[in-house]
From TrEMBL:
Pfam families: Mrr_cat. The lineage of its organism: Archaea, Thermoproteota, Thermoprotei, Desulfurococcales, Pyrodictiaceae. It comes from Pyrodictium occultum. GO terms for biological process: DNA restriction-modification system. Residues 70-133 form the Restriction endonuclease type IV Mrr domain. GO terms for molecular function: DNA binding; endonuclease activity. This is Restriction endonuclease type IV Mrr domain-containing protein.
């Protein structure tokens, strides 16, 4: 219910009435979520500050990933990825597009010019139920092809010149996702910040696919 409304406040009594639950149960659940992130209690109301952070907190507290995914949209994933990149010191670019045959659509690109290191994030707003290994492998293969187009269009997009190592990543909601698919890191949203901290090491890992742009 809170995720359906997005940012804003909902009286706890209204929530209890709509969910046919005792007010005490709703208050206890809201208190647990407020302690986990994305939600704060203000008087007798629960206020959502960050819908995706609230969703991740709910998953950690045992709420079904599939149930949570139904109330999220792809914009939340892109915003979350861009914010995490910016907080980690990357320049975060969203919605890169080149139209026409051989064009490009890229959700989020993070650039660390000092290290010559970039990460291209494909945000997969999939229900965890359908995030099967075969589907992840197919998405990873397409993302690897996308990096080739990114390199071809690098200058056209006005991106910084130089030598770059570009690591692809699939961002998913599912907590128990495989580490790699076709050499592409599969990153649960709850672990994105940790992934970014490990990115320099991952760029040297022979198991990880890395695209290279020469000066």
């Amino acid at each position: 219910m809170l995720l359906e409304r997005g940012r804003g406040c909902t009286p706890l009594g209204e929530m209890a009435a709509r969910l046919f639950l005792r007010p005490g149960l709703v208050e206890a659940a809201a208190a647990r979520l407020a302690g986990a992130g994305g939600l704060r209690l203000e008087g007798d109301a629960a206020c959502v500050d960050d819908p995706l952070a609230l969703a991740l907190a709910a998953v950690k507290l045992g709420v079904s990933e599939t149930a949570v995914a139904r109330h999220l949209d792809w914009r939340m994933f892109e915003e979350y990825a861009a914010r995490a990149l910016a907080e980690a010191g990357f320049e975060a670019l969203q919605g890169l597009r080149v139209h026409g045959p051989g064009g490009l659509e890229l959700d989020v690109l993070g650039l660390d010019a000092a290290a010559g290191l970039a990460v291209a994030v494909d945000c997969k707003h999939w229900s965890p139920r359908v995030s099967t290994p075969s589907r992840l492998r197919a998405a990873a293969a397409r993302h690897r092809e996308r990096l080739g187009r990114l390199i071809r269009h690098w200058r056209r997009l006005g991106l910084p010149p130089g030598r770059w190592r570009i690591v692809p990543a699939l961002l998913v909601l599912r907590e128990h996702a495989p580490r790699l698919a076709e050499g592409v890191p599969v990153v649960p949203a709850s672990r994105l910040r940790g992934f970014l901290e490990e990115l320099p090491a991952l760029a040297e890992d022979p198991a990880v696919y890395v695209a290279r742009l020469e000066a």
